Amino acid sequence: MTAIHSVIKPLVAVAAAVLLAACAQSPQKITLAPIFPAPEQAIGNKQPVHVRVSDDRRDKVLGSRGGAYRDTALITLGESLSLAIQPALKDHLKALGFEVDSLSPQTTDLHVVFESLVYNHPDTDGVGHPMDMEAQVRVEAVRQNSRYEGRYKIKRQEKFFNAPSEPHNEEMVNKLVVDVLESMLADAKLQNFLLDKSND
After folding, report:
1. pLDDT per residue over 106-126, tens digit each?
2. What's the rounded Cα separation, in Å, for the pair 16 and 128?
3. Phi-psi region for residue 79, left (φ > 0), alpha (ψ -120 to 50) or beta?
4. pTM
5. Cβ-based neighbours of 154, under 8 Å, separated by 6 or more
6. Residues whose CB falls within 8 Å of the CB of residue 170, separated by 6 or more in sequence, listed in order
């Protein structure tokens, strides 16, 4: 019996270690590379705009992947949010028909400020693998003595059968960024300001 115990105890220890490893999630750095859908029409009418993107998030951690060691299984960005998003947003505004980075005195300074970006597995029990998602931006558009400000937010929860893979997490975060920026650009008041129609 002692010999059997001596064999079983290591096997139990190995099984427990494998189980913990299976429940653990490693940290992950997300690569931001937002891809905007092609616009249905170019609405910009060659209006001049200068684009800036800033990162004003209080917490630079997107969230946790969950698992046995959720406090260390953190999701962060692999690069500067501003440097990753600004070129993509500029290209999208060009596709929309705006004249980006014009030196015209009528140029609108479009400053997009990210206030939150969350992609987090909540610390709850239950069926499936839910992920909380949130993105919020503030926009400050200034042209000479005129100014427009707005705030836009996307918030949702999606549930997956298993923990999403790293490529899937990256895809979801990039989609979240695109969704909140498209929500911003769909604002009729912001569009009118960019097109200099605010006084029409």
Report:
1. 999 999 999 999 999 887 766
2. 22
3. beta
4. 0.83
5. 133, 134, 135, 136, 176, 179, 180, 183
6. 30, 31
